[in-house]
Q: What sequence folds into this?
């Protein structure tokens, strides 16, 4: 478990670059759409180059076949786990400091537990208490930032409302979207393992019926939707680079549609460079390490523990914002909120 936590922390360090560089691009006037969409265009190009170098172009053909066989699944997964997630992060960065976005996004620890419960996973009830600590910390961070904005603007309600509506809300949407996308990809591998186990049992009774979904009788709309997650039996999905490549390709239609709706002005050179840097650090490095650690988790508690390491991003983002962007230190309330978030992380790691 310690190894998985360390991998998660490493991913958190790389991922924190997202919040710092997005704040930098927002301050320079770059549109949030390009900060979001270009990251995944660059990710696709970088991942394709890495995979071709490691396995040859034949591997890309194999992945393309997997994608087209289940294109609906990959488009839904990529749109939620990458598209909606990163749109919320970049939009929020236009309105509040990067460390505030990072702290609010830490609600994903709570969201991850809710997603795991929705997918039928179980874990020790004490993890709910740890998640509540993170949630309270997120609330304190946003309230402190709203009060600071109100004091600076000398307005009573508007700054607080802006922080919550344009900063906290998009980040909270991102906090749910990210674990949903990750869990959908995990479910594909779980379905394949479950089907194989059931086939071995059925070989003795000849009662096994072929199925492309987990053979569980759905009892609710949610279970019906989960049951429609396909079974993709291939060792290629054991490789984190392959999974990120498939999700990235699946997100491209989302970015195309969003661009047609938003119609932003063309990005400048600095935004292109910063987005490329985010794609390398947060997109390729952080996402691949995080998905690898999550895949290595053997129990629901270990999965929750890996997910909780994302809380470290707020500390990395805060330090980076102070050193690189000259951001002010958080207020006492904000520091208490950060402390509660980190306490929740430590408890997850200790008891996971």
A:
């Amino acid at each position: 478990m310690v190894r998985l936590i360390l991998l998660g922390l490493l991913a958190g360090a790389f991922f924190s670059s997202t919040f710092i560089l997005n704040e930098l691009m927002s301050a320079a006037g770059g549109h949030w759409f390009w900060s979001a969409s270009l990251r995944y265009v660059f990710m696709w190009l970088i991942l394709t180059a890495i995979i071709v170098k490691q396995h040859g172009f034949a591997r890309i053909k194999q992945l393309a076949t997997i994608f087209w066989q289940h294109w609906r699944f990959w488009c839904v997964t990529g749109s939620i786990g990458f598209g909606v997630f990163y749109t919320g992060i970049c939009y929020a960065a236009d309105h509040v400091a990067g460390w505030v976005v990072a702290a609010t996004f830490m609600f994903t620890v709570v969201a991850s537990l809710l997603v795991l419960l929705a997918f039928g996973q179980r874990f020790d009830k004490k993890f709910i208490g740890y998640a509540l600590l993170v949630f309270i910390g997120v609330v304190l961070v946003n309230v402190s930032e709203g009060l600071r904005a109100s004091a600076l603007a000398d307005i009573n309600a508007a700054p607080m409302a802006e922080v919550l509506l344009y900063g906290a809300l998009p980040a909270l949407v991102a906090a749910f979207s990210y674990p949903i996308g990750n869990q959908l990809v995990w479910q594909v591998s779980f379905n394949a393992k479950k089907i194989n186990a059931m086939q071995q049992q059925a070989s003795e009774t000849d009662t096994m019926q072929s199925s492309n979904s987990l053979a569980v009788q759905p009892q609710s709309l949610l279970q019906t939707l989960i049951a429609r997650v396909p079974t993709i039996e291939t060792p290629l999905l054991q490789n984190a680079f392959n999974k990120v490549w498939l999700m990235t390709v699946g997100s491209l239609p989302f970015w195309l549609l969003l661009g047609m709706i938003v119609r932003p002005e063309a990005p400048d050179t600095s935004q292109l460079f910063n987005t490329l840097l985010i794609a390398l650090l947060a997109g390729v490095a952080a996402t691949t390490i995080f998905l690898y650690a999550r895949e290595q988790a053997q129990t629901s508690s270990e999965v929750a523990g890996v997910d909780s390491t994302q809380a470290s991003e707020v500390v990395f983002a805060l330090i980076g914002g102070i050193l690189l962007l000259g951001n002010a230190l958080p207020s006492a309330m904000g520091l208490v909120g950060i402390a509660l978030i980190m306490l929740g992380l430590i408890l997850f790691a200790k008891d996971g």
Residues 210-218 have pLDDT under 50 and may be disordered. The CA atoms of residues 145 and 330 lie 8 Å apart. The chain has one domain: 2-205+224-351. The chain has 15 helices and no strands.
